[in-house]
């Protein structure tokens, strides 16, 4: 194994001090002779030395490194959000390290501990419902924190999210008033694991109850949803007479429910289907599927700008931002 070149090696080969090399790496040349700069530059070039972020930050109080923790990186929403955050990080001279918690408290804890050891300047996190204990730990360590997509219900938290409750509430109203649906079904993963799920489920329930329409709910397993259970639920609560809307608030579950409906040969859009995000699939399914879509890329940009503003002490605006969703009406609804 090739020995990694360190800042100490560069200092010895250039016949100077480690502090001087650190000044060079941070472009602090005002007290450095031209000859010293050339010697250090020559050694770095010949050894192919790549300075670590931590080494470069020895004389700064910031690492220019931020941690971003995603609940599920496998969907397009998360990918776009990370891309949005990265676009701002690069523009403002920061780098990101990322973890995928899979909505697991244990994985969330491990990633946060690792990122704290790397001395990141701050975090952008999609928190589980167990995250609250880390808020005080981060405050004690002077770390800045922004939640995205989900929030913890404390006024002092910084977060960027979308109008999940209002978007779902309004969508159900339109499905009744304009699309003619007279019964509503929701197939969802456990709503209590994330505030996002709570908001979407509550938006559904409040809307259909205000409409005084009948509705039913099925809670499915996050990791191993039962196709037989979904089919039985759909078969029991749909018929050829009553226009019925099936709402699926979890993007990963949408194709599974769609498959169950197709295998049961339910008449779409008489039995309508509406999901959340997953436009990489819903725009190309047959029939195409109506979805409520979040501005994921912008959400990532907003979260990263908000975090860096806090790190650099320039956050002069509100630290809580809500972005609007849009409904993409497709063939799966009238």
From TrEMBL:
Keywords: DNA-binding, Transcription, Transcription regulation. SUPFAM superfamilies: lambda repressor-like DNA-binding domains, Periplasmic binding protein-like I. SMART domains: HTH_LACI. One of its GO terms (molecular function) is DNA-binding transcription factor activity. Residues 5-60 form the HTH lacI-type domain. Signal peptide: none annotated. PANTHER family: LACI-RELATED TRANSCRIPTIONAL REPRESSOR (PTHR30146), TRANSCRIPTION REGULATOR, MEMBER OF GALR FAMILY (PTHR30146:SF154). This is HTH lacI-type domain-containing protein.
């Amino acid at each position: 194994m090739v020995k990694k070149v360190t800042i100490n090696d560069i200092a010895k080969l250039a016949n100077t001090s480690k502090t001087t090399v650190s000044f060079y790496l941070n472009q602090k040349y005002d007290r450095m002779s031209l000859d010293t700069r050339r010697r250090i530059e020559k050694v770095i070039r010949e050894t192919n030395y790549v300075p670590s972020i931590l080494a470069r930050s020895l004389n700064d109080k910031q690492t220019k490194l931020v941690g971003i923790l995603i609940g599920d990186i496998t969907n397009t929403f998360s990918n776009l959000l990370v891309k949005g955050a990265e676009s701002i990080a690069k523009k403002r001279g920061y780098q990101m390290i990322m973890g995928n918690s899979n909505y697991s408290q244990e994985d969330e804890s491990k990633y946060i501990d690792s990122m704290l050891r790397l001395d990141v300047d701050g975090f952008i996190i999609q928190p589980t419902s167990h995250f609250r204990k880390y808020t005080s730990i981060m405050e004690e360590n002077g770390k800045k924190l922004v939640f995205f997509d989900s929030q913890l219900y404390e006024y002092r938290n910084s977060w960027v999210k979308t109008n999940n409750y209002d978007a779902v509430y309004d969508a159900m109203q339109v499905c009744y008033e304009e699309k003619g649906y007279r019964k509503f079904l929701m197939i969802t993963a456990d709503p209590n694991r994330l505030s996002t799920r709570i908001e979407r489920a509550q938006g559904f329930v409040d809307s259909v109850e205000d409409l005084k329409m009948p509705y039913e709910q099925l809670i499915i397993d996050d990791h191993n949803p039962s196709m037989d259970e979904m089919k039985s639920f759909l078969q029991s609560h749909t018929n050829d007479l009553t226009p019925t809307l099936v709402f699926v608030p979890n993007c990963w579950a949408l194709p599974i429910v769609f498959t169950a409906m197709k295998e049961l040969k339910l008449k779409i859009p008489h039995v309508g289907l509406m999901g959340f995000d997953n436009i990489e699939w819903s725009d190309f399914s047959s029939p195409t599927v109506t979805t409520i879509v979040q501005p994921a890329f912008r959400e990532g940009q907003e979260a990263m700008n908000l975090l860096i503003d806090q790190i650099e002490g320039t956050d002069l605006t509100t630290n809580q931002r809500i972005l609007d969703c849009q409904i993409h009406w497709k063939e799966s609804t009238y």
